[in-house]
Amino acid sequence: MFKSFLTIIQHEIRVTMRQAFSWITPLLFFVIVVSLFPLAIGPDETLLRKIAPGIIWVAALLAILISIGNLFRTDAEEGYLDLLLLSPHSLTLLVCSKIFSYWFTHCLPLILVSPLLGLLLNLTSHEELTLIITLLLGTPVLCLLGAVGAGLVVGIRGHGLLLPVLIMPLYVPILIFGTGAMMAASLHQPLNGYFAIMGAFLLVSLAFAPLLTGVALRIGVNQ
Amino acid sequence: MNKLIIQDVSFERNNQLLFSGINCSLQSGELLQIIGTNGSGKSTLLRILAGYLEPLSGIISWQDESIFAQDEYQQQLHYLGHQNGIKPYLTVAENCHLYCALTRHNIEIDFALKKMGLSSIKHQQALRLSAGQLRRLALARLLIKSAHLWILDEPTTALDLEGQHLFAELLQQHLKQGGLAILSSHQDLHLPFTQQLRLGRQHV
């Protein structure tokens, strides 16, 4: 059974890799949005450093929002979703493997380039490290919550901005704690509490989001 | 002995009755054809029978138990809709491997591809295949996973004559082995239908 999921994840990643624009576009979006701020605000180092956590986090959140709507849309159009629903594997686990593949191809690149962007915004090495850890803990939560939304809108044609409006409010807590941890890092305060709460968000969303996504997909596939 | 019984099934879309009073019973080795004009609800009925949709009223039972009450029902059937369920960015062979992983079946895919005449394009991306070749690939799934019940929505669309013969052969073998099949089509297929169900005005 483990081998089946490995095969499924491997093929999912392969599909995304062969469709290079689908993962490169959100990455470029992220890089461009972040690099626009120093240009717009000017070379004020202290100000940039102060607002850097917010900029990077909001840019990452938007990059995920613009791409996660496609998580199940193409599957539904191709009729692949019908096959997923007939599978003897648990739908929750199948959804998990899809979300993992999405995170691997869309979020991991963001996390890998974020230290470079941190450099652009004048972050210290301690802050850079905190940034990476918060993104590692936070982006899976954004993906899991986004997947529920993507499942809900799967049957709606031309949903456009419906998905962002639907799930953006759910992103607020993780945004607050992600940027909060960065603020604390710049003031050299202890960070364990922030990481613990973000970890808790991750575990709770891991427990419920795939299940809810599965329910949403069963309803949405018939529209 | 497998048995599918459809009792007084009706369905409503946008507050309009699409069909009602559908009754039918199907046993091992039998083939049901669903006929109807465009928009008469053939595909919807097939999706109901495949367990994706619940009917407005009526009972559908498999082995004397409602299909919506048993989890294993959907694992015993093949559903092929208008879309082929093929990932265009994967090759023919990769699509088959993915399907094997999804269904936990691990048979030699080469056999299925050869049977459907797809061996020569095994390593081509599905993106570059014609509509008929994609349909053949979708039908190759029938060979990868063995299922008691086949629910196929216009399976022969886009198939050439040879493909249609291949499909007829597969179907006959399936029925001989005690399988059941439900097909929808609005064209005349030369297949050994044992039952027909007509959807359309008389039901509305």
Any chance you could write out the topology, listing elements then pairs?
The complex is a heterodimer of chains A (223) and B (204).
Chain A: H1 2-18, H2 20-41, H3 45-68, H4 70-78, H5 80-86, H6 91-120, H7 125-152, H8 162-186, H9 192-220
Helix pairs in contact in A: 1-6, 2-3, 2-6, 3-6, 3-7, 3-8, 6-7, 6-9, 7-8, 7-9, 8-9
Chain B: E1 3-13, E2 16-27, E3 31-36, H1 42-49, E4 57-62, E5 65-66, E6 77-80, H2 92-103, H3 109-115, H4 131-144, E7 149-153, H5 161-176, E8 180-184, E9 195-199
Parallel strand pairs in B: 3-8, 3-9, 6-7, 7-8
Antiparallel strand pairs in B: 1-2, 1-4, 4-5
Helix pairs in contact in B: 2-4, 3-4
Oligomer: heterodimer
Number of structurally distinct domains of chain B: 1
Fraction of residues in β-strands of chain A: under 5%
Give the distance, in angstroms, between the N- and C-terminal Cα atoms of chain A: 31 Å
User: SS-based structural class of chain B?
Assistant: alpha/beta
Residue-averaged pLDDT of chain B:
88
The total beta strand count of chain B reads: 9
Number of strands of chain A: 0
CATH superfamily of chain B: P-loop containing nucleotide triphosphate hydrolases
The largest sheet of chain B, given as strand count, sense and whether it forms a barrel, is: 5 strands, parallel
Q: What's the helical proportion of residues of chain B?
A: 25-40%
Order of helices and strands of chain B: EEEHEEEHHHEHEE
Taken in chain order, the helices and strands of chain A follow as: HHHHHHHHH
Strand content of chain B: 25-35%
When the domains of chain A are counted, the total is: 1
Strand order of the largest sheet of chain B: 6-7-8-3-9
Distance, first to last CA of chain B: 34 Å
CATH domain class of chain B:
Alpha Beta
- The helix count of chain B comes to 5
Outline the low-pLDDT stretches of chain B: none
Question: Tally the helices of chain A: what do you get?
Answer: 9
